[in-house]
């Protein structure tokens, strides 16, 4: 075993057999300063193709680790941030008695428990040796979308004896009515106790006026500190505050970036590159991260731009790896402490994590002149006004 038993600071414990045991009122400071504190660089082997949208930082007694899916070998690789090398692999079999099927993200919870999202929708619990311990089907009788994930955008979250997951999509959003949107539930909770599981969908949904100014994307990202789950829609300024204990939505709170002003309106089915072009010209929010070391949230965003500014770069390359990315720093009261906009193509979208040293942002944007697919590279960003151990 590479980890000590006191593995990860979560509010739950899982046994080795895979079951659970017993208003935007802030000061938006335009002078908020971010600076590069350090960097992380890990050389990859020839057969290592990382899934940059499926990563997890692990703070254990034995050290710091980064877990990611190696798409080349269908394994979860655990990388030591001290030795800068892979120290353990967890197989994700396609067939056999421990079959995982089509994985769509994971969370490592303790030294011998991995929770995996699969399609068709199910949660699968396995140990570090790749032995499947339990399968929990996730069904939504009202929506019937075959989607389940635990990636950087919507990782599994945890509470007392519970796993929380989200399903933001619809079978055909262009046929959905406003009434359907307002009543649709997007968050499910799996309660595990005494080797039994109960799946329920929580009463948390979009505000009633979400489509009053036009049909917009229903994508969501989320994060959690303590009892609160904070849901961040990509095309709405309002954050959702959901209580784990109460199992319900408490409020929608406006937390606007001064850089995000125009969301893409989905007035018709896209054709060719039209959808991507519209998205690039408009703004949107993206990943939301919780920082338990400094008790803040990071809400990333994309800024819209004129495509002529990047002549020579294809629409698809710009859409896949956006040039203009920024981040808001928000305290636990959902007050904006400040914002920072990165240089063009400085970082890779969706690929960030929080560690003891600060906010890690990937610099593996393929549109950078110094891009090298043989390395994982992160800048460690700190913000003036936040406290750090060193």
Mean pLDDT: 89
Q: H/E series, N to C? A: EEEEEEEEEEEHEEEEEEHEEHEEEEE
Low-pLDDT stretches: 4-30
Strands ordered across the widest β-sheet: 1-24-23-22
Structural class by sheet pairing and helices: mainly beta
In whole angstroms, the N-to-C terminal distance is 29 Å
The gross shape turns out to be globular
The tally of strands reads: 24
Pfam family, one: DUF4221
Protein name: DUF4221 domain-containing protein
Organism: Algoriphagus confluentis
Features:
single chain; 390 residues; mainly beta; 4-stranded antiparallel sheet; 41% strand; DUF4221; DUF4221 domain-containing protein
Summarize the structure.
By secondary structure, this protein is mostly beta strands. It has helices spanning about 180-185, 275-280, 315-320, and strands spanning about 35-45, 50-60, 65-70, 75-80, 85-90, 100-110, 115-120, 120-125, 130-135, 155-160, 160-165, 185-195, 195-200, 220-225, 230-235, 240-245, 250-255, 285-290, 295-300, 325-330, 335-340, 350-355, 360, 375-385.
Helices and strands, with pairings:
Blueprint: E1 34-43, E2 50-60, E3 63-70, E4 75-80, E5 85-91, E6 102-110, E7 113-119, E8 122-126, E9 132-137, E10 157-159, E11 162-166, H1 178-183, E12 187-193, E13 196-201, E14 220-225, E15 228-233, E16 238-243, E17 248-254, H2 274-281, E18 284-291, E19 296-302, H3 315-320, E20 325-331, E21 336-341, E22 352-355, E23 358-362, E24 375-383
Antiparallel strand pairs: 1-24, 2-3, 3-4, 4-5, 6-7, 7-8, 8-9, 10-11, 11-12, 12-13, 14-15, 15-16, 16-17, 18-19, 19-20, 20-21, 22-23, 23-24
Pfam families: DUF4221
InterPro entries: DUF4221
Protein name: DUF4221 domain-containing protein
